[in-house]
Design brief:
By secondary structure, the chain is of the alpha+beta class. It is built from three helices and six strands, in the order H-E-E-H-E-E-E-E-H. It starts with a helix and ends with a helix. The structure holds calcium ion. Calcium ion binds next to strand 2 and strand 6.
Length: 120
């Protein structure tokens, strides 16, 4: 009986700790990722599902934030003037060329705000 109770308590602890959301100070930025460029499709597609497929276990299940910058000059996405079709920590980044006044998106790389233990 005591052994069974111990197992139940241990299982409960493991379940609770695996689902706990870390406090904000335990989050870190991942590396930068770039798997597409605006010349190869209708735009630049840096989708979270595609990034996870290419880099297994490198990006957490539910990132809290996303950042993007140009791959060559590292200009933050919010300073480029591009209009993003998708810009979301749960989906990633999509920039469509024909949505831009210039007719072409910049080439972006993205990173995500995840619990530090996932990718360290
Ligand atoms: Ca890109």
């Amino acid at each position: 009986m005591i052994k069974l109770l111990s197992v139940a308590i241990l299982a409960g602890f493991c379940f609770a700790s695996s689902w706990a959301i870390p406090p904000p100070w335990q989050y870190c930025w991942t590396d930068w990722y770039d798997i597409d460029d605006p010349m190869s499709k209708p735009g630049d597609f840096e989708l979270l599902d595609d990034l996870r497929a290419k880099y297994p276990r490198k990006i957490c299940w539910r990132p809290r934030k996303i950042e993007a910058r140009t791959i060559d000059t590292h200009i933050p996405s919010f300073q480029t003037g591009d209009d993003f079709h998708i810009f979301s920590p749960s989906q990633g980044l999509v920039c469509i060329n024909h949505d831009q006044t210039s007719g072409m998106c910049h080439d972006y790389e993205v990173r995500f705000w995840c619990p530090c233990r996932i990718h360290s």
